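Contributing new complexes? Match this layout with iron/sulfur cluster.
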Amino acid sequence: MWKNIIIHPKKCTGCHLCELYCSFHHFKINNPSRSRIHVVRSEPYIDSPVLCIQCGLCINSCPVGAIIRNKKNGAINVLIDKCIGCAQCVFVCPYGAATIDPVTKKALICDLCDGEPECVKNCPEKVLEYVDSTKAVYYKNLIISKLLKKESVPLEPYPK
Amino acid sequence: MSEKIFGYAGQILRIDLSKKKILKESLRKDFIKKYIGCTGYAAAILWYELKPKIDPLSPENKIIFSTGPLTGTLCPCSGSYEICFKSPLTNAFGESRSGGIFGPKMKYAGFDHIIIEGKSDKPVYIWINNGEVEIKDAQHLYGKTVHETTEIILEEIKEPEASIACIGPAGEKLVRFAAVMNDRDRAAGRCGGGAIMGSKNLKAIAINGEKDIEIANPEKFYEFVTEAEKALLKKTALRRFGTINAITVLNAMGALPTKYGYTGFFERAEDVSSERLLSKYLIKRRACFACPIGCGRYSEVKHGIWATPPHEGPEFETADMLGPWIYLSNLEAIIKANYLCNNYGLDTISAGNVIAFAIECYEKGWIKEDLVKGIKLEWNNPETMIELIKLIAKRERIGDLLAEGVMRAAEKIGYGAPELALHTKGLEMPAHDPRGETKIMAIKYAVEYRGGCHVHSGFPGLYDRSPESLNDYGLKQFGLPWPPKGKFIEEGKGIAYRFFAIFGQIPEIMGMCQFASMGSEGNMITAKDYANIYSSLTGIEMNEYDLMKIGERVYNLKRCFNVREGFNRKDDKLPKRMYEPIATGPVKGEYVKNLDLMLNEFYEAMGWDIETGIPTFKKLKELGLEDVAEELKKI
Ligand code: SF4
Ligand code: SF4
Ligand code: SF4
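Output block (do not edit by hand):
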């Protein structure tokens, strides 16, 4: 069975280590802007990684057929020699997971590190988990359901 | 750049605000070899470029934003930058570290250091985007808080991922302990860097970058940094409870600075403890860039008169200086005060110190009534604390006096105030009491180049604080006296402190957080680890002994900077209260007995002249600082 990465956003401290490990794994450099996982910090409250869910929408968006699915582990693979950097995949990805590498000017999409995700291995807070695709459903549902959570109403009104 | 330097960005950005001149210079290889980077490199720049005895708030002063080779890399806890300048509080070497993501962004933008010189004729900010530099108008930002400034600039430059370092109203008003704030709530707080920016009419630096930091030996580097990450993950208490955990720990020891140092024991400590913060106000932990520890707290007060939006803090120093120091236990008010200090751009340590100082002076009848009309200058009064923070930031009424820092305010107040003021060299003492905690802090406070500081260079408090938790900081191999004789024994502390002074420079010149460098082998990054990480990153081979030598060189250079400014043994002293017994609590009666003994030991161990406390010619020559020694001879 294929596996997917799921996120427990509540635990994230926004340390960017996942980005550093991702870009290191692929390019042997330090540069979070060349990572395939993106840590968002937005005031107030938000620290969370956002990453590719391997849905495959981008495959058909690519005009030169540079994006394929790896049959072994189900990951999206970009054929770098074919990629022309047109950013159609960036445009179509609903999650903002596909980007254009600022250095090579070619597509960056999570390839699950060939089945051994570096970000999962090195996140100090265990925000990321690599689980069987069927199990991922539960966690995704949980995240969606949390979006619907109601804030408790304060007993006293806010001061002016 | 001719030849590639791994690990470093390779360039220095120099901006002359008087002439609006922007210059890019190559990093000097000889400086890297001698000083590594960050505050080491910056100390060398300041030594060679600053004229002695200048007014720190004049255009002749410079402020340098510095990163180290490890900044912005995979190495855990490497998200630091430091600012270096001549301090307006002490007139000595000033430096201050901060985390967040500003430092890494400097490297990704292509600069190891940013040197700011001169003075702009009108308010400006600097926008650095991947090596492109622009000086922009900041007239509309004047008077704005740190959070407001950050929002407006992010909107203007249309780069949401940029990092902003800026000053608040306190920096504009030249409050001598104004901080430089970055990424909203991270502070390069100590020594008054914010006032230097204010004096140059520089409101902010915005920066973003996407360049690579290259690695000489990736396989080895990966091996060493993952080891280091594993070690740091063992700091479970710091991770879970944050630095504010120290409230409970120190109070149990009788060493929680309380009521302006009157005692080390606070009956209501539980009210300001980490547990209390966790149970009601903490939203989550927040980490600096590349930090697996994540000591940062992210909290809010939701309702009531102390309500604040979510923001980072409070950490231990803030919680104590704006809490027990003022004999205050209202945690909500402390969180609010922290929020205000962050937004006005005030160093919370110095702010708490001057506020408590003012209260005690008033109690003793040394402050004139008309200066404090309408303010109840008394202990344990949260309204007073908040009011004073605002007055200081705006330099209004008594705030104008306190904004000068505790040493200058004391001179002006007169009576017994100068004797009461808790500072060394003009830097307000922080929340560690050498009398009750460990006597090694006493020698540290006395000799530190930046004044009354617990953490530059290195925090030695964990060395012998309690017999159950001795920590050797990985320094046994260099000869650190071990095991320690006991925390209240003064003899030998000067010798022991030498190791911390030297080792403490290593994280600083590497661009690291000090928390990575405390503890014992297995739960910290030791000198040997630093050598491995540095060598594999840069390809410049170094062992731990080489690094300790460089640490010693840098420490001596900073000392020499101060010597050139007129500092010597007479300035290595402690405030009077440190010689008076702690009034209550478990270690009631403890006081510093013989600082001279520790000073003699320290100077001798350092190879400095015992009479004057000045590094000897022989020592400086041995460290490759002959030219520095020559210049000192002229004085
Ligand atoms: S990059 Fe986006 S569109 Fe492509 S597979 Fe990943 S999530 Fe789907
Ligand atoms: S699995 Fe690998 S490629 Fe995908 S985001 Fe994580 S580190 Fe990057
Ligand atoms: S490594 Fe983990 S905690 Fe750090 S930013 Fe990534 S997901 Fe968040």
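Reviewers usually confirm one structural detail per submission. For this one: Residues 544-564 of chain B form the longest helix (21 residues).
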